[in-house]
Design brief:
Helix content is about 50%, strand content about 20%. The chain has about 220 residues and is of the alpha/beta class. The chain folds into two domains: about 150 residues, UvrC, RNAse H endonuclease domain (Nucleotidyltransferase, domain 5), CATH 3.30.420; about 50 residues, DNA polymerase, domain 1 (Orthogonal Bundle). Helix 6 packs across helix 7.
């Protein structure tokens, strides 16, 4: 690289069987996390579990916005968590934005921790004991952690919504009222009928109680 990568960014995709596909971007400055700069993305244009197209989408969204708002803050190094496919699609996004000459982009493959570069058939193996590889591993692991946490939160929210919304008579406002009052579906299920009735009425309280305790 022509300059020391004091500003690094790493991307990771997270989905389980195509559900709630999301991606994360974490930022390191001077080899330390800059958490205020982290970004999370819900995949908008890709249907199903397509890691390659999802990677292209989020890289495009991240840097098209940066070019509009703060073009002087482009990272020196972009790390893609994945192999040749993810890297190639990220590379395409950067090329379409016209910033390939301004940044260096590499992939970090998990199996052998090799650094992959577009157009180079030979991966780069960095000494396992070197600080350089440890920084790359750290930013990759942080991107994975950040993305997985976001994905789990979305799945939990979806599970809560589906459990309550399946009850006839429970709409969005009722769901919000119950969750604001009790904090979780488990506490709603354990609530006395009289208490539920005071919140949602006797008939609906019976339906909610029976559904959550008999399902």
């Amino acid at each position: 690289m022509p300059v020391l990568p004091r500003h690094m960014e790493c991307f990771d995709n997270s989905n389980i069987q195509g559900t709630n596909p999301v991606a994360s971007c974490v930022v390191f400055r001077n080899a330390e996390p800059s958490k205020a700069d982290y970004r999370r993305f819900k995949i908008k244009t890709v249907i199903g579990a397509n890691d390659y197209a999802s990677m292209k989408e989020v890289v495009n969204r991240r840097y098209s916005r940066m070019l509009e708002e703060n073009p002087e803050d482009l990272p020196q190094l972009i790390v893609i968590d994945g192999g040749k496919g993810q890297l190639e699609f990220a590379h395409q996004a950067l090329a379409e934005l016209g910033i390939l000459e301004k940044v260096t982009v590499v992939g970090l493959a998990k199996r052998l921790e090799e650094v992959i570069r577009v157009g180079d058939p030979y991966p780069l193996f960095i000494d396992r004991n070197s600080q350089a590889l440890k920084v790359l591993q750290r930013i990759r692991d942080e991107a994975h952690r950040f993305g997985i946490t976001f994905h789990r939160n979305l799945r939990s929210k979806a599970a809560i919504q589906s459990a309550l919304r399946e009850i006839k008579g429970v709409g969005e406002k009722t769901e919000q009222r119950l969750l604001m009052h009790y904090g979780s579906v488990a506490r709603i299920a354990a609530a006395p009928l009289e208490e539920l009735s005071a919140l949602v009425g006797a008939d609906l309280a019976v339906k909610i109680h029976d559904y959550l305790n008999n399902d």
